[in-house]
Structure to design on (345 residues):
């Protein structure tokens, strides 16, 4: 075989085509996005599109009607990999899926199973423990997805969801189990980088010092707060005013703070807000009377990156005497239970 023939053969193996149509989408530009970059685009009169190209390493990608995915009113996430890919509407959900390759067909199957779990939850809403039951069943699907698909990107899609909540050491083990080709993907590398940071902030590790501005512009470091003789335990709490689950944690934070602030408990809140007014208003209106800092950079918050935070609310409890992280993810009543164990002696 000649060199040119070999090259043509390789390109054929790596070729993809992607077709589909967004309903009720007229006179708009449809974008093919990967890692925040526009790979291709087409102006469409009726929402239909057709893309072709080659891809060496499978990647997580989007089809959307806006080049900024967060601003898109129509989008579909899929795996960009060789094959004849077709976007289809997902019945009854107003969403879209892509089929035509192994990883994308598996993703479509997960969407179907997820829809069934949602239906099961709705049928049993109000039943004691139903939320935990459904979440456990969904996590089991994801864990199975990783274990059975370490040679394709569907496994990485499952791991991406698991990595938000599970123990970083477990995520590390799963990451290492993937084939070398998958480890070249941007998704694997992104999760790997985040996981490396999370391992540095695992229980038993020393806290990572940082410095950010209070509302009045004065810079405050974690060391300033943790080394304060009045403090025995400091909770570094990551939150944002736009985060519903974060705001639902506020009553638990306030109750614990009010009860133990005079006994050596302090909170250092790090906000992922991106507007000063929203940040300050949430603090004042909700009477969150502890220490607050932020760089107002949203998900680009430097401290969140240092601590490997990829979902909020998130928190880390520091023992001021040792400077070590002794707990994390203290949500709801678990926070006061932990602080009570430490200070009610």
């Amino acid at each position: 075989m000649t060199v040119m023939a070999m090259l043509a053969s390789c390109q054929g193996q790596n070729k993809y085509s992607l077709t589909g149509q967004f309903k009720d989408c007229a006179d708009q530009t449809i974008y093919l996005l990967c890692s925040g970059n526009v790979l291709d685009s087409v102006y469409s009169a009726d929402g239909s599109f057709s893309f072709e190209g080659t891809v060496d390493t499978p990647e997580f990608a989007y089809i959307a009607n806006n080049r900024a995915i967060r601003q898109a009113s129509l989008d579909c996430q899929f795996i960009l990999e060789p094959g004849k890919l077709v976007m289809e509407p997902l019945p009854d959900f107003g969403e879209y899926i892509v089929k035509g390759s192994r990883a994308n067909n598996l993703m479509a199957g997960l969407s179907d199973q997820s829809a069934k779990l949602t239906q099961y939850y709705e049928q049993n809403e109000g039943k004691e423990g139903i939320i935990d039951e459904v979440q456990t069943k969904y996590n089991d699907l994801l864990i199975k997805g990783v274990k059975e698909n370490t040679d394709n990107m569907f496994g990485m899609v499952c791991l991406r969801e698991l990595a938000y909540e599970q123990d970083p050491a477990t995520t590390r083990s799963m990451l290492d189990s993937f084939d070398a080709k998958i480890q070249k993907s941007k998704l694997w590398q992104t999760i790997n980088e985040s996981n490396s940071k999370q391992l540095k902030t695992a229980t038993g590790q020393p806290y990572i010092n940082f410095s950010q501005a209070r509302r009045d512009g004065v810079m405050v470091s974690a060391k300033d707060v943790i080394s304060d003789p009045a403090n025995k335990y400091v909770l570094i709490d990551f939150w944002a005013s736009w985060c519903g689950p974060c705001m639902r944690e506020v009553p638990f934070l306030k109750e614990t703070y009010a009860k133990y602030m005079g006994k050596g408990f302090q909170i250092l809140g790090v906000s992922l807000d991106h507007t000063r007014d929203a940040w300050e208003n949430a603090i004042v209106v909700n009477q969150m009377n502890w220490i607050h800092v932020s760089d107002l950079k949203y998900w680009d918050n430097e401290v969140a990156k240092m601590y490997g935070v990829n979902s909020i609310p998130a928190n880390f409890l520091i023992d001021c005497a040792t400077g070590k992280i002794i707990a994390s993810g203290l949500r709801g009543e678990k926070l006061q239970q932990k602080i009570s164990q430490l200070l009610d002696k």
Observations:
- Residues 35 and 327 are 33 Å apart (CA to CA).
- The first strand starts at residue 15 and ends at 21.
- The radius of gyration is 23 Å.
- The first helix runs from residue 3 to 13.
